[in-house]
Amino acid sequence: MRIRAGIAGIVGLVVALGVTELVHGLYDLVPSVLGSIAQVVVEWTPGGIVTQGIELLGTADVPVLIGSVVIGTLAVSALLGILAVRRPALALLGVALLTALGIAVSFVEPFINPVATVANVVVGLLAGTIVAELMLRAAGLREVKKAALEAAPAGTPGSPESPAVRWRETGAGSMSVGRGGFLALGGGAVVAGLAALGLGRLLSGGSQTASAPKRLDLSNEPAGKPSGNEGESDGGGKEAVTHETLPKPPADASIDLPGMPKLITPAANFYLIDAALTSPRVNADDWKLSVKGAVQNPVEFSYKDLQEMSTLESDVTLSCVSNTVGGGLVSNGRWTGVLLSDVLKEAGVSRENISSASRQLVGRSVDGWTAGFETDIALDGREALVAFGLNGSELPVKHGYPVRLVVPGLYGYVSATKWLSEIELTSWDFDAYWIQRTWTKEGPVKTQSRIDTVKGGDNLQAGRVPVGGVAWAPHRGIDKVEVSTDNGNTWNEARLASQLHPDTWRQYVYDWDAKPGSYTLKVRATDGEGVLQTAEDRPPHGGGGTDGAQGYHTMEVTVA
Ligand SMILES: Nc1nc2c(c(=O)[nH]1)N[C@H]1C(S)=C(S)[C@@H](COP(=O)(O)O)O[C@H]1N2
Ligand SMILES: [Mo]
């Protein structure tokens, strides 16, 4: 009895989720209830747990989290099903609470149609409740009076499965239609619910991935010439608008070897880290960037405003503070955008007038996520960008469409706000998202190097073995890379590709003449200021700091 009642509850939930996820898939402005619950869990868990989650699970944290949310909700619904047998009023109260919760969590999403969102949750849970009720009756777990029967479902969306309908037509006397009816009804409802859920997920994910970001189309005017709308009368001190693009990277900036990452990471391979379980989908036409806080002249920019300012391309390697030594949370992009210093200039901010009230530049995303760094860094001459393009196309949704920040030399968690909606100048007291969650306030990227053309555990053939990969110390550049084959006792200088830019990673290779035996390979880099990468091993968080991993990428190989 318990089992059947529990199953009825679960089937009801599957139907409810099916309805809500399908509607979400069909209509952007109704959020995914599942996604919203997971998002709220992320936001409300103490920093340490989330941080550990991200360290332990890496980018798998999102599916794992959603999985746990699903299991948790299924357990609750099974309990409600069981409760419904003896205490239907209490069970209904439970459903009402669930509805309220579903609505509440949906409202954490930034872009919703409130009426449709409420209606979606209510209709979904109503459909689920009705299906669960029908199953309880089919299982003979419910004595029903005629009146209650007639008050029951009238053309509810969800699951008009035939067994239920048949049962209602014949429905009199004992409400049990036996095992067959229960199974048919439950099975049918689950299949319909899961199909709706799957379709909904497919539709919502599909619209992001299926449509490749459009190529950027700025003016084709050659660099250095005005792009035109101000005409000849440029005497008023308005500077000429330019759209500078970069030439193709020189051939000698790449070393072509199996396993070597591409010098410029294709957008599809660009690493992905964020605290948003579903990427906010922003309509660029309604989007605004406001520059506010301790500024002389608060200003707003539309997407078009930015593209009509002077733009440039800049090659910048972005990396995540939670990258482990040898890990993959680092990529190199060719970004298009406006200089952050130009945007700040319009707000009246200059290096000279930074005060303690404007010491920190906080980027805030449409979903409220924040990152902050020293305002001075935006003005010290590096090409910090308000970026709207990656590799010649608009930003992919997952990487921050329509606009994000990219700051050479800083980890993403303090600087690289995606789905940017606000730049606020404020005091150093404000703690942004990951700072509240115990990561270090300042996040300069540590000098790192990685072996890519050989993997730990490889059995190599004696002879020439190219040991190559990438090294990065964004904004400082890379001057030297050395490879050791004897666990760091001796070092061999690697051949370097030409440096694309001090803000990007640099490829290297050491041509190792490998003799049979067992070896411990290591790599280390020296940055453009002559400082050697630190040897002391540390994980990204804990073990002596919360400011990113360090140490030499090390691996064991054998040569036969
Ligand atoms: N809005 C928003 N922006 C964000 C984040 C986020 O969680 N939300 N994560 C940051 C972190 S920790 C990193 S490392 C970079 C990653 O950028 P990518 O996903 O484009 O590689 O984005 C940063 N920008
Ligand atoms: Mo990060």
TrEMBL record:
Transmembrane annotation, as ranges: 7-27, 64-83, 90-108, 114-136, 182-203
SUPFAM superfamilies found in the cross-reference section: E set domains, Oxidoreductase molybdopterin-binding domain
Record keywords, A-Z: Membrane, Transmembrane, Transmembrane helix
Bias (Basic and acidic residues): 235-246
UniProt-recorded name of the protein: Molybdopterin-dependent oxidoreductase
Record GO terms (molecular function): heme binding; molybdopterin cofactor binding; sulfite oxidase activity
Superkingdom assignment: Bacteria
PANTHER family: SULFITE OXIDASE, MITOCHONDRIAL (PTHR19372:SF7), SULFITE REDUCTASE (PTHR19372)
Boundaries of every Oxidoreductase molybdopterin-binding domain copy: 279-434
UniProt organism field: Rubrobacter tropicus
GO BP of this protein: sulfur compound metabolic process
InterPro entries given in the database record: Ig_E-set, Mopterin_OxRdtase_euk, OxRdtase_Mopterin-bd_dom, OxRdtase_Mopterin-bd_sf
Region listing for Disordered, in residue ranges: 207-254, 533-560
